[in-house]
Amino acid sequence: MVTGMWLTARSTIGRGRSRTIAGGLPALALAAFLASCTSPVFAPGGSTPPSPPDEARPGDRIHQQGQDALVRWADAVRESGGASITFVGQLTSQIGDWEAENGDNKAALSAGLVEPVTDLPTESPPRREVKWVDGTTIDVNVLSAEAAFEDLVAAGEGDCGKCAALRVTEANLATGLVETSRGPAEVPMWVYGVAGTNVRITRVAVDDSVTVTPPPWNAEDPPVGVRIDWAKGADDSRDVEVGFVGAPDDGSKPCGADYTADAVESEIAVVVIVEEHRNPTPGACLGVGAIRTADVRLESRLGDRVVLEVQQGLPVRFEPRS
After folding, report:
1. Class of the 92-204 domain?
2. How far apart are CA 94 and CA 73, in angstroms?
């Protein structure tokens, strides 16, 4: 079994809890936090009734983003044929650390610069079980080693320059713990051996899953709102807690901020909108963020709906709460 594999994706309203973090912030979250030092966003004022995904709110950009995200999610669910699992984060990972002499291998993997030096199995294995930590299970179709490898290559991004291609020598079916929109789950995955290293490359082998494509990122006109990284809630409750990177101090202090949250909802998804209210006192703010939280009350119980962040409409890690 492949263990220890977590593919992470990641507000008590007002003066909520915080934990300072100075390094290792996700680039997108840190960029959003730094931008907020000079570009405060003002709150719409409380929760609003759910609107159909195709109903826009004129002049309200952040709620329009939420509505657009609901539309993209509905399209993705429809295109998946009604798949019942949504993965959060990258589906490609690795077991072990690259050796010093293989320093370019990480970039090669990220770029999808991988090629087989042996024939990979083309036959799909029998259906297997996905099991969540709360005991919930579903049976899923499993990709062949060749099909999963093709997905691994297609998911590559960036240019590795003069990197040598990683050479895959074998493929073995295993299970590993992976983050989904409903919490961590044990899922089938292919484990690929690579020539010249002890590192193994893994790729989730579940055939049917919901995958949404966010709109292109425009650095000159980025989306508004605060990107949440995780959500906690219970299926039978209307209350959801979300976490995100924000100001270390509350809004009573210079460079501090308070946060409010509301949501736009559909029958299959919830987009949580967090807005920042920064202390207007002028001054130089340090580029330090903290984990902040906010609470939002939905118009109806969460049920099995997926929680999405507002900037790109991507699903976030969900932690069930009793």
Report:
1. mainly beta
2. 28
Tokens standing for residue 209: 């899953």
- Whose tokens are 């003066």? That residue is 15
209 neighbors 197 (Cβ within 8 angstroms):
no
Q: Where are the domains of the chain?
A: 18-81+223-320, 92-204
Task: Report how far residue 288's alpha carbon sits from residue 20's, in angstroms, rounded to the nearest whole number.
Answer: 7
**pLDDT of the chain, 322 residues: tens digit per residue:** 333 333 322 223 333 333 333 333 344 444 444 444 433 332 333 333 334 444 444 448 999 999 999 999 999 999 888 787 899 878 999 999 999 998 899 999 999 999 999 999 999 999 999 998 888 899 999 999 999 999 999 999 888 888 999 999 999 999 999 999 888 899 999 999 999 999 999 999 999 888 888 888 888 999 999 999 999 999 999 999 999 999 999 999 999 999 999 999 999 999 999 999 999 988 788 878 999 999 999 999 999 899 999 999 999 998 887 6
Q: Round to whole Å and give the CA distance between 157 and 99.
A: 22
User: DSSP for 160-180?
Assistant: -TTPPPEEEEEEEEEEEEEEE
Alpha carbons 314 and 28: distance in angstroms, whole number: 13
Whether 262 and 238 have beta carbons less than 8 Å apart is answered as no
